[in-house]
Amino acid sequence: MNSKIYASLALLSIGMMAAQPVEPVAAIKTQALQDLQGRYADYRQVAQSIWGFAEVGYKEAKSSALLQKTLKDNGFTVQAGVADIPTAFVATYGSGKPVIGILAEFDALPGLAQQATTAKTPIAGQDAGHGCGHNLFGTASVATGIELKKLLKEGKLKGTIKVYGCPAEEGGSGKVYMVRAGLFDGVDAVVHWHPSNQNRSMMASYIANTSAKFRFHGVASHAAASPERGRSALDGVEAMDHMVNMMREHVPQETRIHYVITGGGRAPNVVPDYAEVYYYVRHPNRDQVKDVFARVVKAAEGAALGTGTTMDYEIIGGTHELLLNETLARALQVNLDQVGGVAYTPQEMAIGKQLQASFGYPAPPVENAATIQPFGLSDGGGSSDVGDVSYVVPTVGLTAATWIPGTPAHSWQAVACSGQEIGTKGMMVAAKTMTLTAIDLFSDEALLIKAKAEFKQDVGTYVYKPLLGDRKPALNYRD
């Protein structure tokens, strides 16, 4: 054989060998599962610390710092304050391809402070609570990143792992700014998860969303002595709300519109010169969100005109619907089946039944937390800025039973579960499943090729553009 040809073939062979794990994938996965379980207590402590911090969107200074320190202590290089967001970060280890991203969230929700008990028991002096389990979310993702880093360092995998610290998922659209800043450029696939009341490979799309605060400005006056001299900003808000509520009959039936009046005056005998209402508009299709939101703006303009007030509004967030990747979701399902669900102790079973008694509606058996849901499309309903990530890189996720079956998200029961062993056990199901799935992505080039082909076909000719435009992050949207 020609010596040059022989040399070329030898180099090709070496390159192919370098792309493969140095030991069987099954053995690597077994080690990963053992490693993760061995650090159960460490990760439980991290999750419980963040549960106690209970920091709302863009204010998660302690939570972000703890996750960053955990990653740094385990050999990651951390870039903090990315995308003009003080609490956002990207932690990186390794070099070369493939580049696999893991998403980590850690913000809490206002008005949901709750003790880890089976009765509704607010925490004195605290407002926020982890009603969506993001204390567990961020910790499991960091645990995944650390285990993958360990395998990369040992030479059992080749490539780069990135853990994305993603603030303000709850309405602040933190990931949208991170996407817009190009932080996902060059990433081959992204893995994420979300706390839930069941274990499932995610085949339900988050729906698109735009949110805004509408601010009305009027003229203050004595409400009894000189009402004719006043112009009520609260009248403007209420007129807007009334028109939007009438509009519900005339929008696509999948549309969801929610609002809360965040400012409406301080005293009944003072005509309010300022009032504010915070709106969400959702639909499974981003174009429908744009259309409906434009009509909501028109209602606000009409309300201001009719009440003699003025109005301005600020876009707070905007997210795409989630682009599902069936190729990756099926691969994740295999790993979720291997990991299995959550096994409760008799004491945890009793706690679960007590919590279910507070629901006021029938709930599935507590034992269902040990069940893995079969693969297939399921109903969505919520929104997430993960949707924007999914339009720039193939993305896959799962839900894990961190809450007692039947528990609704954004409830005091979810906060209570997220602060107990019940939540930690589900968190580890997620960490293990994401780790095994990422191992597949590092070691199986054909899986990535197929996932990217599906992604390219589904995106088609669409060129990603954030729904929130070019505004800067709404760092004070929870104020």
UniProtKB/TrEMBL annotation:
The Peptidase M20 dimerisation domain, residue ranges: 211-303
Signal peptide residues on this chain, from the entry's feature table: 1-18
The keyword Signal appears for this protein: yes
Record keywords, A-Z: Carboxypeptidase, Hydrolase, Protease, Signal
Transmembrane parts of this sequence: none
Domain of life: Bacteria
GO terms assigned for molecular function: carboxypeptidase activity
Keyword DNA repair (UniProt): no
Name of the molecule in the record: Glutamate carboxypeptidase
Organism per entry: Hymenobacter frigidus
Taxonomic lineage from the root: Bacteria, Pseudomonadati, Bacteroidota, Cytophagia, Cytophagales
